Amino acid sequence: MVQIKDLMNQDITLRPDGRAVDELRPVTITRHWTKAPEGSVLIECGDTRVLCTATFTQGVPRWRRDSGEGWVTAEYAMLPRATSERTDRESVKGKIGGRTHEISRLIGRCLRGVVDMRALGENQIQIDCDVLQADGGTRTASITGAYVALADAVAWAKAHGVIKQNKKVLKDCVSAVSVGVINGKPMLDLPYIEDSQAMTDMNVAMTGSGDFIEIQGTAEHRPFSRDELNTLLDLATVGNRQLQALQAQALAQ
Amino acid sequence: MVQIKDLMNQDITLRPDGRAVDELRPVTITRHWTKAPEGSVLIECGDTRVLCTATFTQGVPRWRRDSGEGWVTAEYAMLPRATSERTDRESVKGKIGGRTHEISRLIGRCLRGVVDMRALGENQIQIDCDVLQADGGTRTASITGAYVALADAVAWAKAHGVIKQNKKVLKDCVSAVSVGVINGKPMLDLPYIEDSQAMTDMNVAMTGSGDFIEIQGTAEHRPFSRDELNTLLDLATVGNRQLQALQAQALAQ
Amino acid sequence: MVQIKDLMNQDITLRPDGRAVDELRPVTITRHWTKAPEGSVLIECGDTRVLCTATFTQGVPRWRRDSGEGWVTAEYAMLPRATSERTDRESVKGKIGGRTHEISRLIGRCLRGVVDMRALGENQIQIDCDVLQADGGTRTASITGAYVALADAVAWAKAHGVIKQNKKVLKDCVSAVSVGVINGKPMLDLPYIEDSQAMTDMNVAMTGSGDFIEIQGTAEHRPFSRDELNTLLDLATVGNRQLQALQAQALAQ
Amino acid sequence: MVQIKDLMNQDITLRPDGRAVDELRPVTITRHWTKAPEGSVLIECGDTRVLCTATFTQGVPRWRRDSGEGWVTAEYAMLPRATSERTDRESVKGKIGGRTHEISRLIGRCLRGVVDMRALGENQIQIDCDVLQADGGTRTASITGAYVALADAVAWAKAHGVIKQNKKVLKDCVSAVSVGVINGKPMLDLPYIEDSQAMTDMNVAMTGSGDFIEIQGTAEHRPFSRDELNTLLDLATVGNRQLQALQAQALAQ
Amino acid sequence: MVQIKDLMNQDITLRPDGRAVDELRPVTITRHWTKAPEGSVLIECGDTRVLCTATFTQGVPRWRRDSGEGWVTAEYAMLPRATSERTDRESVKGKIGGRTHEISRLIGRCLRGVVDMRALGENQIQIDCDVLQADGGTRTASITGAYVALADAVAWAKAHGVIKQNKKVLKDCVSAVSVGVINGKPMLDLPYIEDSQAMTDMNVAMTGSGDFIEIQGTAEHRPFSRDELNTLLDLATVGNRQLQALQAQALAQ
Amino acid sequence: MVQIKDLMNQDITLRPDGRAVDELRPVTITRHWTKAPEGSVLIECGDTRVLCTATFTQGVPRWRRDSGEGWVTAEYAMLPRATSERTDRESVKGKIGGRTHEISRLIGRCLRGVVDMRALGENQIQIDCDVLQADGGTRTASITGAYVALADAVAWAKAHGVIKQNKKVLKDCVSAVSVGVINGKPMLDLPYIEDSQAMTDMNVAMTGSGDFIEIQGTAEHRPFSRDELNTLLDLATVGNRQLQALQAQALAQ
């Protein structure tokens, strides 16, 4: 960790909430938060609060039948007043916005990246990530929480004899965290106040083995250099390691 | 209360959760459950759990302008996995179902029934009731919780000088409860397991003064007599009085 | 009837159209108004004019298959210029409004309340209520007219050998009427001019045996007391009895 | 008329309803069929029955403002059970079908073809044609009936001082009729049973002066020759002249 | 041709692009413009440029199954910036406009008019006409180009053994052209600048044998007489003969 | 370049089209491909063919008014038969799919990343990228082509005096290219046949100065290591430099 801090010429007083640049917000993972779903996890990252549920269904969509393989899909949504200004419901507008689509697809890809579809067999797991309160990093919190719900749903299927105990459905764990450049300084885990003024914003999903499942870096406000990219990836690695430790702790309980 | 019990020839062991026929499920009302909304209340009635938020906005919709009066509107929705089977999202289907519309309109009418629109002035309050977990009575829990969120939003507006302190915006409180006839016996506050086998199902919204704001009684399975109606209304009166006491307690904290 | 009038301290000159408070508008029920449907009824209640058709189809929706039971469903709509101001078509807007949904569901429930689904067998009856001219009470006129169309469709099915003659598909008849409190006075069968100024508005669907199928009472403007409720139910009973006599007359022709 | 009959080598017994090939079905035009619209006409052509209403509104759509000219638009729809098989509502399907769009546009063009938009001034007339019962020729009956409703709406506007009495808003009348080739024989005014087996199907809208506003001829089943076209246009001329006489009669009452 | 010119009292300098009144714009037909479709044709008529593709699929829609007959359907669309003002995408608006529907249906009917559905067998051909650049006559160019794509798709099916070589799927060729009356003068093949000021506008689809598949004549601005109609049809015959020669040339390459 | 080849242990015969792993497909950029748009570019990358248009409009959307800043937005779409299997039109389905939304947003962000919104002033540029033929890399070809169309639209605005000549609206150029890992080997510019079997797929948008605007790396099939990421970024840098040279050449003509 020492190198990262040096590299960034860190100014500890910089962040509104007093965190160091490579420090996560407090994270809480609560399993079985609701009763009905096969996996149900409330994840809180600072003030961001997402309910992640996993629905296990036997059978797969038509296009996947007779393949011997399963499928994992995800939907992301926000309650209208998760945000400081009320957002109109997409159900009322009659269409799903681009941002929602983009994030739903991201979450789905990240989870599929750690699932052995053959071991899952012809079963489907539907992930729902509903943001109850939003303060930045909702998509990365969704991925991190959804992995735990996914693990619970797989365990449920094994406990109920739908999947054999010896199948290794989950090839690895996955978590995600946001990083960004604020006033020229790379930082880990941006709350809304920082995110909205970031020059560059990156979401990084990593496996427990330290490889990448998804990197999405955007620079609407100022392009970022290869050096900045490297620092951001270092920060993301730090954050994801901690998140994966918390996932493991939650699942061990 | 004595008369009611006599009238119903009550069999205390009848209900799956051991409640008496005129007994509410445990109710918890938590204010300020999320930070952003002007009013934010988590109401739990047994396993039914609804997040009710109230959004206060200055100004009214176009058709209401220059009337000197405000407006209160409501939207109801369920998370996909609030129920034992996953429900498809209405945003994904691209249209709002009839049941959602019906309940949203019911909640809106009940709250408008206790608001003095002239005292509210040209301001709008939008109520969002999102069911996080469903076990029967979601629409009545929504009304009961939404009233508390509404009261908080009105208080917020007064504290911020948007409405004068001396304006009496809320003419009365309002709560709602479900009653129904199960195997010929009228009962108070039906969880899902009872609701699904009810011959008659009625939702009753009442003011603190004991008058009715809305009565919706349905008998798809067996018509109900005037006598049954009277017993159901007695039960609803019992339930609403208790709910209003809990509302008052919550608002007093 | 005497008691009701006493109770209401009736002022005969009160109503714009000169009716007594417990008097229905003139009602006409015309069967076979169009040729194609298995049941086709034009009902006129004062200036309100609704075309109610019943479409009989063998087979049921997928979720009902192999249950041995039938299904009855209803859709309500208004022609754009049924009203004094033109209403935009819901087909053009691309979505069905809440009011339409609410009324369609109400009509469906009321008719299902008198149908023995097992006697109907795996057949479906679709009710369409299209308001050609609206002057208050369109949803109650729809229910009253739709019952006659439903009876014709059942008779058609028996005449065509789809349902055995000895099956008692209709357990009872059903009609509906609106009642309301205007300037503090309960009244029967509100035309638009009264409906729009009602403090309380209630729609009551009753069977021939005098029991209730549906009660929907709303008090956006002023809550109503238990006493008022009782008077309104008395008025509704008077009205529904007359409507059911007219249904029987029409069906006897 | 003599020439036409010769030209067609007419076989009087050919048509299911016993009509001659150049004979219209019985036509009834009833004005003021509903009370609310500025023009409201029920037109019956055989068993085809269309309610045509005209809504007069001061002001024009945004793109037409400050042009000094008015606008006329039309919407066509069918009740679900106007046809022998029930048609799903377009409002329920959430989109308007191609056939509906095509016919709505046709009606609008035909009526605009006889309106002097400058004389109309910045006012809009919306035509609604709702088919209550369909037996072929619904689009042509709509045009013929809508013209009468349009004339009534213009008269209403003059009577209410919205348009000056001396303005000649209607340049001419317009009516429409279908013609087609059945088993090689051109015929006038096709009911559904003929229409569905027509090789060629043509709708012809003409002014009182005998000119064409719209010709739509389609030959999915067998192309038609210039000679056949000429015979069809002769038949359409015969039919439209009679329809225009009936329009004039109706408007004279 | 001599008669036509006389009849029209032609003024050669009349047209903005210097053409004679009975002269087509330059037409180019390029086959195999894209690689994937079974038929892919870029047709250019002056500055109008339409990509017409034909997709051959084995099997037919459900309603056509076990009929032994095939089906041909068409969809028309415009790129947003095919026009001088950008047009909003219909996918973004969420609904297809009336004009698009009308033209899609026209193209489908015209092509079906020359296809022997029995010879096609239970196969479907989907035509897509996408306007890349619009300068009037996009619907007629679509029909003319789509016929060539259709012929290529049929040839593909024969070459791949899906249809027997000896089946005569195409009964005839079909092309279409626009004609119109401008300042009182009938003219052939209107570019946008002429089309927008036409009193009468007609689209005429004809077979190689000189018969009509579809005639659509519209006169929003001034009705047209039988004589004008005849002249317009003469012009359309001239134009379609030339277009059919170009289709044959293209297919011969 | 030497290092990259060494690093990848390159096998020149690996790729179906005979390219080296760090070799782009042939690229053609044609400006002014259609006449109407302010910028209109056809870009061809191998068989991928995208029409990119830029529409310049004075004024900005409401939320941007009085900010003194402009806006750039983008929409991506595919013709139905750009692909080997026909894709249903999103306009017909009535909603935009997630993939379309995701790519449209990506293109918009990349272009905004090089635009000085203050120099653009309160003007809007709408980018439309319509894929005429798809063979992998459609989103990156869209970005590369759209930049040229954007530059033309800015030049048009300067030529027409809407933007002052001395304003530097474009801060830099931007291009994008896909890279991926196939059978363990990183490669540049994947056609469909490679893309569909890629373990990892990354799209990289870079400025002329060599910084990143957007990185999107996805590993549904196998996570990628930091070393692989670095090689992929090296390849993307090689590709983007060449694309930017081609953009400059095209704009110089």
Automatic annotation (TrEMBL), chains A, B, C, D, E, F:
The keyword Transcription does not apply. It catalyses: tRNA(n+1) + phosphate = tRNA(n) + a ribonucleoside 5'-diphosphate. Its EC number is 2.7.7.56. Pfam families: RNase_PH, RNase_PH_C. Residues 23-153, 173-237 form the Exoribonuclease phosphorolytic domain. It is an enzyme of class 2 (transferase). Phosphate binds at R99, G137, T138, R139. GO terms for molecular function: 3'-5'-RNA exonuclease activity; tRNA binding; tRNA nucleotidyltransferase activity. InterPro entries: ExoRNase_PH_dom1, ExoRNase_PH_dom2, ExoRNase_PH_dom2_sf, PNPase/RNase_PH_dom_sf, Ribosomal_Su5_D2-typ_SF, RNase_PH, RNase_PH_bac-type, RNase_PH_CS. The keyword Nucleotide-binding does not apply. Keywords: Nucleotidyltransferase, RNA-binding, rRNA processing, Transferase, tRNA processing, tRNA-binding. GO terms for biological process: rRNA 3'-end processing; rRNA catabolic process; tRNA processing. CDD domains: RNase_PH_bact. Belongs to the RNase PH family. Phosphorolytic 3'-5' exoribonuclease that plays an important role in tRNA 3'-end maturation. Removes nucleotide residues following the 3'-CCA terminus of tRNAs; can also add nucleotides to the ends of RNA molecules by using nucleoside diphosphates as substrates, but this may not be physiologically important. Probably plays a role in initiation of 16S rRNA degradation (leading to ribosome degradation) during starvation. Homohexameric ring arranged as a trimer of dimers. This is Ribonuclease PH. It comes from Galliscardovia ingluviei. The gene is prh.
